[in-house]
Amino acid sequence: MKKFIYTLALIFSLGLSFNAAQAADKPAKNPTELTAEQTVQLEKIKSRVEEIRDMDKSNLTKAERKALRKELREMKNQARAISGGVYLSVGAIIIIILLLILIL
Q: Please, which domain of life does this record's source organism belong to (predicted)?
């Protein structure tokens, strides 16, 4: 059992050092810098979301409400794609936690 834990720790540490070495070779990229077109598009998305939020949705039909939800989801995906960022899935977080529990 000890050999398994030591081997797992070795593989994990080598994997981290390999990723750090690759990251050092790449130039630093700042994801928060947006072009003028991207800022304009984000402002359009924000204004449309505020417009939808202020709407009176009580007199809309079921199909219209469904179309609004779909439009909001698409705008959310566009905003995420424009702004960038790193997202971890739930599965990745669970695997990381399990590895930490096994190592420690």
A: Bacteria
